[in-house]
Amino acid sequence: xxxxxxxxxxxxxxxxxxxxxxxxxxxxxxxxxxxxxxxxxxxxxxxxxxxxxxxxxxxxxxxxxxxxxxxxxxxxxxxxxxxxxxxxxxxxxxxxxxxxxxxxxxxxxxxxxxxxxxxxxxxxxxxxxxxxxxxxxxxxxxxxxxxxxxxxxxxxxxxxxxxxxxxxxxxxxxxxxxxxxxxxxxxxxxxxxxxxxxxxxxxxxxxxxxxxxxxxxxxxxxxxxxxxxxxxxxxxxxxxxxxxxxxxxxxxxxxxxxxxxxxxxxxxxxxxxxxxxxxxxxxxxxxxxxxxxxxxxxxxxxxxxxxxxxxxxxxxxxxxxxxxxxxxxxxxxxxxxxxxxxxxxxxxxxxxxxxxxxxxxxxxxxxxxxxxxxxxxxxxxxxxxxxxxxxxxxxxxxxxxxxxxxxxxxxxxxxxxxxxxxxxxxxxxxxxxxxxxxxxxxxxxxxxxxxxxxxxxxxxxxxxxxxxxxxxxxxxxxxxxxxxxxxxxxxxxxxxxxxxxxxxxxxxxxxxxxxxxxxxxxxxxxxxxxxxxxxxxxxxxxxxxxxxxxxxxxxxxxxxxxxxxxxxxxxxxxxxxxxxxxxxxxxxxxxxxxxxxxxxxx
Length: 602
Hints:
By secondary structure, this protein is an alpha/beta fold. The protein has a 9-stranded mixed sheet with strand order 11-10-12-13-21-20-19-16-17, with helices on both faces. A 7-stranded parallel sheet has the order 5-2-6-1-7-8-9, with helices on both faces. A 3-stranded mixed sheet has the order 14-15-18, with helices on one face. The longest helix is centred in the C-terminal third of the chain and has 27 residues, at 575-601. The termini are far apart.
């Protein structure tokens, strides 16, 4: 087994996860089996109880693991399925060691950070690195380990010491260190400053680890003289100092890095035994082609994300990526407008009229709307109002998890006449609890107790013509990932379906409602699961593809061609489509302005 440790310096949030993922993607293009481990030095057992404002979204794996969002990057770039053990936290390590101490495994010894904690870290890494993560079922050959935070963090010391020991335990030819550091460019001087990078590498070397590769993150490309300076002061060859400036898309990073010869260096440094490499245009072709698609969109689609955590884009990372993937599929650039659902609520009209009207204006000019998941009562009324607006104005809509639930509540209140329709999460005394708690998923603890992970969803027999089923290739059974504790009350299902909201997808026991589809609407879909978790750059999520296709008035064309996108030449000659798009766009603006004025301004 070969190991690549990715560390960070100066500040966090410089893109270590994307760098680690890109290295893995390059190696996979060379035919090497790759796995990845993310180390988060915090004391939490997992990310499940975090607010999205702490570390961004909580990413869910097939096995139900609630993990750091970087594991989502690994899965998307490497096209693998990771396990909960691929995310290590200080809490997990200490819990394991303390449990062993209580069991008497240390034979009366004093339990210390060295060697007990550091040994536990090394053993965990070696064990997890051997687990197959790709469809081939093969044991990985290279394990990429990303250490969160920076080398100067006190929380990271035990992990750095563990890897200092680890490099000698497994021998140098099996261990490589990549250090990611920002190269700052103060506006006062205009020059890139290397001192912070030098200081972080000096700290790394003081702790016993010498970087083999230095990745310099910057807003703009750095000069060769700056690279040479870093090389001289950090004891790394100039060829191994790689600049990764801000690019238009993170999916351009693998090709950009490989232009520096990363694959050749790693194959030689880790003695991987693969030589010679084909020209980059051949083995990196999927990523080169993806970059071309992303830089040549034919259309632009505005998507409103009506959420509760809109102040931090990382709270909706997987949704943003899923929209990008779907945009590549249908040939459009996605322009996202974040709308704080609280600003759509009626009380904001008097408290903050400017924010209120701005939120409704952005909603009204959007081509389609996503209402994502969330927890708690804050902003729910605004989400319900957004669902009503999309339903009445015929705006393409996708509700995910809580978005699914609030759409059910809105339909109950305004179509079925159940004015007190609500969720027991939000109002325990509602006379019409159309959304109820799954009691078996609440044992009094918050962490890891929800309905989590990969589960089967079955389309009902009577749904052959369903849009969402056709988007999934007309399959009877599909698998998606879940993260929720509330569900549709089955006592109300018959009444909903009589009035046009059909629950087309159910769980394996056909008791839980997983997907609804509204009749007489271009695209009004709700899913209890999180389709964004399984979206991949070259295999986008069907619900998101359907949403963007409907926004471009191309859904029926897409479905009629068995979910295949028209070529650029076909689109150029598709006068009927262009006429429909232009007419629909005009009508949509008229409908939007009237709905906007009647629902929120009058």
